[in-house]
Amino acid sequence: MRSSLSNWYEELQIVVYSIPKNCPDCCKHICHRKNLNTELLELLKDGQLKEAGKLLRISTK
Fold it and tell me: Could you tell me the residue ranges of all domains in the chain?
């Protein structure tokens, strides 16, 4: 077992003993908020509002 963990951590640099900071439901909520923020950034990146319907949908969530 030790050599297997050593391979994962030392050679592949993957953390073996990690735990999530948030529960699955919280992770989904955080991911959803980040996706909405990305959509909002795309809508407003030129300083011009192109699609008011999408902006309204984002603001109501």
Answer: 19-61
